[in-house]
Known about the structure:
Blueprint: H1 4-12, E1 19-22, E2 25-35, E3 38-45, E4 51-57, E5 60-64
Antiparallel strand pairs: 1-2, 2-3, 3-4, 4-5
Amino acid sequence: MDDPKNVVTAAKQLKNGDTIDVEGDHLVVFHFCEAYGQVVVDAVSSVSARRFELHYAPDTRISVL
C-alpha cells in the first residue's frame, strides 16, 4: 500500500486534465479542492464515463464515491 502522506502530496499536485489510475481504471481529473483537511478529487473514467469523487486525508484514502 502507498504511504498515505505521499498519496496526499501527489493528490495535491493534480491539475485538471491529468489522468490517474485507480484500481485499473484511468480517471481524468476535472476538479480538485481541499476541504475539511481532505483532498477531494472529482474525476471521470475514460473507459466507462462514470464520475468518481475521491477523498484523501493525511492518514488514509477515505472513500471513492
